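no rush on this but wanted to send it before i forget. theres a chain ive been looking at and ive put its sequence and its fold in token form underneath. please have a look and point out which stretches look like helix strand or loop to you. thanks a lot i owe you, the record is right below:
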Amino acid sequence: MGIRKLGYIGLNVTDPGAWADLLGRTLGVGITTDKAGPDEVALAELDAFKYRLALHPAAVDGPREVGWIVDSPRELDRVTRRLTDAGFAVQEGSADETRLRGATRLRWFTDPVGYRVEMAVGETKVRTSPARPADTHPGVTGLGHFVLAGPKLDELRELYESVLEFKLTDYRAPGLYFLRCNTTHHSIALAHAETPSIHHIEIEHGSIDDVGRAYDRAQANGVPISISLGRHMNDRAISFYVRNPSGFHLEIGCGGIEVGEDWIPHDFGASDVWGHHHADANPFASPAS
């Protein structure tokens, strides 16, 4: 009940064309367009629904909103009361915002590090299946998770765990927490950083072959691979990371595990089973790394 899944992420981007090129040539993701006020926004076709990733033209790159799908209007009201009781000011989304999201109801609030967090009821399915390159089986399948880093880690944990009712799946010292709102291992991870940022967004693929082919296309297209191919210790996903045109990472992955109600949160120790070598310093490396 309550929040059911990660629905979409909106980004302010200074170079929508470079984003479209990355998504299209490397990941085989098509782009549609819609209006957001006077501006044209690019919408990435990650699955059969209207969009999961929106690219808004802007003068500065950065997160615009994170959207969570809520089960029903009744649950939206219940979660709203929990947020209000915790001191968050919840506002109604505008008619234009609700239409763009493909939702029937939309509310939003500002999280402890200043980001807009939305709660949407309803999703609009606009295609039977997205077009993909001939060598994908099935290619990109959707939006997986994101990692939010910021200076108010305790407050962020309080928001997501105590107010929004996410469950802690696992964690790693010195301060990296993986949270879930369904059986997927995690839909969000929280980490400490001096300034708020999204460390990465993960785009789900249907098979290891799809991930491998995307890796080949990234190399052929000169896309900067920021973290090499590897397998995570905690969710067992196989993935690699690229540096996107806005400067943070996109994780290209598959094979993450699901967890049940009997799962016990734990410190999973080493970050990876193998691989995942960083081109730059890892900001979340454990002291023993």
